Amino acid sequence: MNRSNVYELLEICEKDINLRRMTIDQIDQDINSLEDSIRFRRTQTVKLEINIQHYQQILGSSENRDRRRAVLVICENIASLEKIAATVRQKFQSNGNCNIYTYDRAYRKFEKSELNPGDIIIATNIAGRGTDLTIDKLLEANGGLHVILSYIPGNLRVQQQVFGRTARGGKR
Predict the structure, then answer these.
(1) Which residues form the Helicase C-terminal domain (predicted)?
(2) Residue ranges of E strands in the chain
(3) What dotted CATH number matches 11-18+21-167?
(4) Shortest CA distance to 162 belongs to which of 147, 145, 141, 142?
(5) Which of 75, 99, 138, 159 lies at a 20 to 30 A Cα distance from 60?
């Protein structure tokens, strides 16, 4: 065997090795893509299972379904907010199945991200402006957010803004 034959054999082996590496790289890419797809499907499955539970809870005809709504009470000022909040806490907090929140300053972040049945929010109009309140699916099925305006505002725009508090998200 001469040198040129050896070099030709080495070149053939090198090409074969490179082809096999490319095949292995392609297989690795396919595996990574399939793993991503599996993770995505699992995430979608979990979301779907949660939605099924929500809708079973909403559509179920059982008597233990929570049919309450959430309530937003808008007060003219902090003094009336504190007075109403004290009365509401006295009447409703003792039974333990509702959450009462107050929101009295625009610079404070509202601590509740999604409203659930039985939640009561008492806020000033200034604190409530620009706050997007989202409601869960059960609350939407129960009729949405119930808004109470505890005073008569000076203009119609303020009143419309209060009653459309969750409407920006297309909710009731």
Answers:
(1) 51-172
(2) 70-75, 100-103, 114-115, 120-124, 134-135, 145-149
(3) 3.40.50.300
(4) 147
(5) 99
For the stretch 109-138, pLDDT in tens is 667 778 888 888 888 877 556 666 778 888
* Residue showing tokens 């808008």: 74
Q: Are strands 70-75 and 114-115 parallel, antiparallel or unpaired?
A: unpaired
Least Cα distance to 92 among 62, 118, 53, 66 occurs for 118
What is the rounded distance in angstroms from the CA atom of residue 116 to the CA atom of residue 99? 9
Domain-wise residue ranges, the chain: 11-18+21-167
- The radius of gyration of the chain from alpha carbons, rounded to an integer in Å, stands at 30
Q: Which residue has the higher pLDDT, 61 or 154?
A: 154
Half-sphere exposure of 140 (CA within 13 A, CB side): 14
